[in-house]
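Please decode residue identities from the backbone states below.
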């Protein structure tokens, strides 16, 4: 699923293609391509060093975060990564650029990527499974999950549990193609571009708290519900804003200006890790 994600993202503009091509050219990995026209998909191994992830070296080269610029950075087996390696991702995720300082040189590379992480529910992988029993102790499970810090969890807009697939589902023909899904994404994205035209931002994910106040308006009942949920779950303000942005996106995908209660409820379904 992670690998397929770039196929449903909007096409790159010429400027975006140029930007990606430049970064890949500096890294020396431009395989005879004159212009990269597809969104990058990068999936570094969990043994990756901080320097390789963020960029570095004597003459600082872009790291994986910059090679994934305007595309997808997929960290498979998220909890196998060194905890510090994950923590250093926090700033580039927020800033969408990375500064590398060496003696006499300061370099800034863009790194506006979509981060996808996957993890097992526990070390044995079967916690919560309906088919097999988990053999881990509570302590083992807690230690395992503690590798992902609260602030890091907070940075994921969408957190979903993916159940194992039954044999019948594998042979199910009713699978939507990327082309169909992309058409919906394109439509929602156009709506957002038009709405945010004067702010030079392109999507809901870039909304600042001030713009959220303006464009993510809830009716009284929905607002009260969300505020009591916020108190009960002891959410951070970052999580609160993310819930609103995702709800805004669900409304856009449904071609609705109003963020209805059902969209907020759906958005809350995508906060699976808060409950842990
Ligand atoms: Zn287990």
């Amino acid at each position: 699923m992670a690998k397929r994600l770039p196929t449903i993202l909007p096409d790159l503009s010429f400027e975006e293609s140029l930007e990606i091509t430049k970064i890949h050219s500096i890294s020396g990995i431009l395989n005879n391509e004159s212009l990269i026209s597809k969104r990058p998909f990068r999936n570094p191994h969990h043994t990756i060093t901080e320097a390789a992830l963020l960029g570095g070296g004597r003459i600082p080269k872009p790291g994986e975060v910059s090679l994934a610029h305007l595309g997808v950075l997929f960290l498979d087996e998220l909890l196998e990564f060194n905890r510090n390696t994950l923590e250093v991702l926090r700033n580039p995720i927020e800033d969408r650029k990375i500064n590398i300082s060496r003696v006499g040189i300061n370099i800034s590379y863009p790194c506006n990527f979509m981060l996808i992480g996957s993890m097992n529910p526990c070390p044995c992988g079967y916690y919560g499974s309906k088919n097999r029993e988990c053999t881990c102790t509570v302590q083992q499970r807690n230690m395992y999950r503690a590798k992902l810090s609260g602030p890091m969890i907070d940075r994921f807009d969408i957190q979903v549990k993916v159940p194992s697939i039954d044999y019948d589902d594998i042979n199910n023909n009713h699978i939507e193609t990327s082309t169909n899904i992309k058409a919906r994404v394109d439509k929602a994205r156009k709506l957002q571009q038009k709405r945010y035209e004067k702010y030079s931002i392109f999507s809901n994910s870039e909304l600042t708290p001030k713009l959220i106040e303006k464009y993510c308006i809830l009716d009284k009942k929905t607002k009260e519900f969300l505020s009591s949920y916020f108190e009960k779950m002891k959410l951070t303000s970052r999580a609160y804003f993310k819930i609103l942005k995702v709800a805004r996106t669900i409304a856009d995908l449904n071609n609705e200006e109003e963020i209805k209660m059902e969209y907020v409820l759906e958005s809350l379904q995508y906060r699976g890790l808060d409950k842990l």
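Observation: The radius of gyration is 20 Å.
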